[in-house]
UniProtKB/TrEMBL annotation:
Keywords for the protein's UniProt record, in alphabetical order: Calcium, Endoplasmic reticulum, Glycoprotein, Isomerase, Metal-binding, Repeat, Rotamase, Signal
InterPro entries registered for this protein in UniProt: EF-hand-dom_pair, EF_Hand_1_Ca_BS, EF_hand_dom, PPIase_dom_sf, PPIase_FKBP, PPIase_FKBP_dom
Name of the protein described by the UniProt record: peptidylprolyl isomerase
Species of origin: Esox lucius (Northern pike)
EC number(s) recorded for this UniProt protein: 5.2.1.8
Length: 221
């Protein structure tokens, strides 16, 4: 006679489980098409366009679509420096990973992102639950990002399978100036290096191993 409640309990567990799976599927429905992209400005020379894995430098302002409240401004964050990030690998919210694809240096866009591709039903900090967000982004530079095995080998000058700050800095400098961009002051590259080590040197020993570096490739292996 005790079988029935047990069975019901199991069924309940199963039903909740199935419900969760269905909810998960529902949440994942938002797609690339749900990100609205408006190009506000395109420079004359707009040949080299961003793609997944590229290292980008950009300013972005974030607003709530509902009432236009500004919730983020990179110009007032971190002493106003534009943000460095690798595109398409989850360092920025999904909607921006999608909405900032195909941009060139100098380009400005307005990107509208549904909550599913931003902070979802929970929200985060000043962003309330289920909020559609509008970002105004301005890209300063697009360069080959430090993520492929090929670029690891390029960066690892002494071929010892770990990257030092000096190796990463040298790589950025060469990559950045390769396209004829004018040389920048050391602090410019220092910030890039800091950012990369912040995101990749997980054990904080001042070196990036192949394993730490490959975090960018996890979805391509
Ligand atoms: Ca090395
Ligand atoms: Ca390390």
């Amino acid at each position: 006679m005790m079988m029935l409640p047990k069975f019901l309990g199991f069924c309940l567990f199963l039903c909740i489980h199935i419900y969760n799976v269905i909810v998960d599927v529902t949440v994942a429905v938002a797609t690339i098409d749900d990100v609205k992209i408006e190009v506000l400005f395109t420079p004359d020379d707009c040949v080299k366009k961003s793609k997944k894995g590229d290292l980008m430098n950009a300013h972005y302002d974030g607003y709530l679509a509902e009432d236009g409240t500004q919730f983020y401004c990179s110009r007032s964050d971190k002493a106003g420096h534009p943000q460095w990030f690798v595109l398409g690998v989850g360092q920025i919210i999904k909607g921006l990973d999608i909405g900032m694809n195909g941009m060139c240096a100098g380009e400005k866009r307005k990107v509208t992102v549904p909550p599913e591709l931003a902070f979802g039903e929970k929200g985060k900090g000043p962003v309330p639950p289920n909020a559609t967000l509008v970002f105004e982004v301005e890209v300063y530079s697009v360069s080959k990002g430090p993520r492929s095995l090929e670029s690891f080998r390029d960066i690892d000058l002494d071929d010892d399978k770990v990257l030092t700050r000096e190796e990463v800095r040298f790589y950025f400098k060469v990559e950045y100036e390769r396209d004829g961009s004018k040389p920048r002051e050391d602090s410019f590259y220092e910030r890039m290096v800091n950012d990369v080590f912040q995101k990749s040197d997980h054990d904080r020993d001042g070196l990036i191993t192949l394993k730490e570096y490959n975090i960018y490739e996890h979805d391509e292996l």
